[in-house]
Amino acid sequence: MFAKRPFSDDYWESKYIHTENINVPIYLLASFSSQLHTRGSFHTFRTAKTSQKWLRVHRYQEWYDLYRPEANKDLKKFYNRFLKGFQNGWERDTPPVRLSLLGFEADGSLTGSIEERPEQEWPLARQQLKTLYLDSTLKQLIWDKPATEGSATHLAEGLTDSSNFIIHFKQQTEIAGYAKVKLWVSCKEHDDLDVADYSNISITLAPYRSLKFEMTTSQSALAPRVSFALHTELLRIWSCQQPKR
């Protein structure tokens, strides 16, 4: 079907699940092991109309967490409250969001991880949005806009080729929320190309409805043919620790 309908249309729109129509109590799980399931869990928590919704973000592989005794006990308490009507203090004892963050040290260990920290909302109201720029010369994410224009190139069909940009935090930094990126993409050899956002596995199943494009005819020597700006929203939740010296 994807070959017959490569672009978003009424057919693909009919497959979209309108989570904003959910009006029953929901217990949502999210983990770091699957971009597909993680994105869906957070999206549903944000959009569901019901006020009776709870999100638990755990730091384990999703199948492992399903069978943990602590997880089963917690889910059973939710079921007892809303399926059997038990007055067991679920609303009083359970915060709307329990957020886990993976701590990364310079040696690769997970020291400093946060496990199911109570929160009142998602995204976090206290978040601070920052803007970073891609530096093609240094291959880094930097805080100040580069003075000169640049580009990064790699073979799109290569299984190991990529353009990577790194940032080193000078102090302990917590990243918990959504990162957005705007990329100018072009192909010098052709006037057409396909773009897939593999940060979300669903792109392999159906046209990705969240991608936005700005078409333009570039006069830049770096991209003399047709190019476009790619806007995409990525879900990133982790905790970055200060590198050890």
From TrEMBL:
<feature type="domain" description="Xaa-Pro dipeptidyl-peptidase C-terminal">
    <location>
        <begin position="88"/>
        <end position="196"/>
    </location>
</feature>
<dbReference type="GO" id="GO:0008239">
    <property type="term" value="F:dipeptidyl-peptidase activity"/>
</dbReference>
<dbReference type="InterPro" id="IPR013736">
    <property type="entry name" value="Xaa-Pro_dipept_C"/>
</dbReference>
<dbReference type="InterPro" id="IPR029058">
    <property type="entry name" value="AB_hydrolase_fold"/>
</dbReference>
<dbReference type="Pfam" id="PF08530">
    <property type="entry name" value="PepX_C"/>
</dbReference>
<protein>
    <recommendedName>
        <fullName>Xaa-Pro dipeptidyl-peptidase C-terminal domain-containing protein</fullName>
    </recommendedName>
</protein>
